[in-house]
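in:
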C-alpha cells in the first residue's frame, strides 16, 4: 500500500470515469487502477454509467462492492442519455466528485502505480497549474488533472462540442488563457492503455449512429471532399484541408502552441454544404442548393456539382473520417467562441440526474 501523501493539507484526488458501452475496457482497467493508487481518504474513483446497455451496472454490483464499501469507488448511473456526449458526461462526473483535484480518466487508460501520489504531491507544491499528458499519445491526451475551483471557473468542458475531438484541447486552452501553467507527467508507466479501433471510439455518437452512407472525392494532394448521406435523409458535404501535409515550418515555444495552431491541423474549409436525399425505386435522389441529382442505388460513385464522389465501404475508414470531421468542426467552434469572448455553457453544465450506488430511491439532481 502506498504511503499517505499530504494528508495535513486535506488534498484529495478524484479519478472521474464516464462509460457508455465500454464495459470490456473497464473490466481490465478499473480494479487495477484502484489497486495501483489506493490511498485511504485521499483518492476516490467516480464512475458514471452514462446509460450503459452492456451490463456495467450488474458487473459493478457483483464485482466491485468491496471498493464501494471502502469508499474508494462511487458508482453513479443516469438513465437519460441516448447518445454519448463527451463534454456533458465529463461535466457531470466532475461535478459528482468530492475532491479538491479532479482527473479525467478514460475507461481504456491504466493510470500506472503511484500516479495518484504523484499528482497529490505535485498539486501540494503548486496551485497555479494543471496537468495533462505530454500529448504523445491520442489515447492518453484526455487525462487532465485540474483543481475543482479552476474547473468551475472556466465553466467546464464546452457542451456545444458534442462529438469526438478537441474538447480536451479546448479546456486546456481556456485554462492557459486563465493564466494556469500546463504541466505534463513524464513517467512512461503512466501512459499504458488498451488500444482499440476508431470504430469503437465513436460508436455511440450521433454522427456514427445517423450515418447511412459516406463518399469521398479527391480535390488536391491536401484537400478532400466528404459527402454524408444520413439516416434522417439530411445530407452534408465537407471540404477537409490537411495542413499537416503542406510542410509549413513554424517554430513554437511549446507543444500546446503547436496543438492550438490551425496550421498544424486538419480543418474544415468554408461552410458545410447541406441538402437532402431520398431513395426511390432503386434510385438515390439528391438535392443540393436546389439542384437535383439522380444515381442508381447500386453504383459506387456519385457525381455531384461536377465532382465524382466514391462510396467508402470500410467501417474503420468511415470512423476515422468521422473523427477528422468532428475534430475539425469542434476546433472551429471552440476557436470562434474564444475569439468572440463568448461565455462557455451560459445556461449551466453537467445538468441531469443520477442514482448513487444502486439506490433508486435517492435521485440526485444536478441543476
Amino acid at each position: 500500500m502506498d504511503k499517505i501523501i499530504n494528508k495535513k493539507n486535506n488534498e484529495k484526488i478524484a479519478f472521474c470515469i464516464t462509460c457508455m458501452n465500454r464495459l470490456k475496457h473497464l473490466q481490465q482497467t478499473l480494479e487495477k487502477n484502484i489497486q495501483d493508487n489506493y490511498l485511504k481518504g485521499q483518492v476516490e474513483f467516480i464512475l458514471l454509467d452514462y446509460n450503459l446497455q452492456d451490463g456495467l451496472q450488474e458487473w459493478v454490483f457483483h464485482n466491485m462492492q468491496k471498493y464501494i464499501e471502502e469508499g474508494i469507488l462511487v458508482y453513479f448511473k443516469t438513465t437519460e442519455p441516448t447518445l454519448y456526449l463527451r463534454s456533458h458526461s465529463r461535466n457531470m462526473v466532475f461535478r459528482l466528485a468530492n475532491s479538491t483535484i479532479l482527473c479525467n480518466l478514460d475507461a481504456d487508460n491504466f493510470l500506472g502505480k503511484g500516479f495518484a501520489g504523484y499528482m497529490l504531491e505535485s498539486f501540494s507544491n503548486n496551485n497555479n497549474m494543471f496537468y495533462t499528458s505530454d500529448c504523445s499519445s491520442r489515447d492518453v491526451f484526455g487525462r487532465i488533472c485540474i483543481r475543482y475551483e479552476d474547473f468551475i471557473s472556466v465553466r467546464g468542458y464546452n457542451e456545444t462540442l458534442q462529438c469526438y475531438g478537441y474538447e480536451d484541447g479546448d479546456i486546456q486552452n481556456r485554462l492557459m488563457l486563465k493564466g494556469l501553467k500546463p504541466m505534463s507527467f513524464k513517467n512512461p508507466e503512466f501512459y499504458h492503455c488498451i488500444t482499440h479501433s476508431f470504430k469503437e471510439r465513436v460508436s455511440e455518437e450521433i454522427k456514427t449512429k445517423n450515418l447511412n452512407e459516406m463518399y469521398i472525392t479527391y480535390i488536391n494532394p491536401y484537400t478532400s471532399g466528404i459527402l454524408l448521406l444520413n439516416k434522417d435523409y439530411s445530407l452534408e458535404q465537407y471540404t477537409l484541408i490537411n495542413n499537416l501535409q503542406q510542410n509549413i515550418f513554424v517554430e513554437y515555444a511549446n507543444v500546446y502552441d503547436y496543438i492550438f495552431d490551425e496550421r498544424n491541423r486538419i480543418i474544415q474549409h468554408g461552410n458545410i454544404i447541406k441538402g437532402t436525399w431520398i431513395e426511390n425505386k432503386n434510385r438515390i435522389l439528391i438535392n443540393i442548393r436546389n439542384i437535383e441529382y439522380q444515381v442508381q442505388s447500386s453504383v459506387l460513385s456519385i457525381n455531384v456539382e461536377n465532382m465524382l464522389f466514391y462510396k467508402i465501404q470500410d467501417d474503420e475508414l468511415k470512423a476515422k473520417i468521422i473523427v477528422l470531421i468532428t475534430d475539425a468542426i469542434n476546433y472551429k467552434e471552440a476557436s470562434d467562441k474564444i475569439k468572440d469572448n463568448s461565455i462557455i455553457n451560459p445556461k449551466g453544465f453537467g445538468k441531469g440526474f443520477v442514482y448513487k450506488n444502486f439506490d433508486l430511491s435517492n435521485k440526485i439532481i444536478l441543476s
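note: The chain is about 30% helix and 30% strand.
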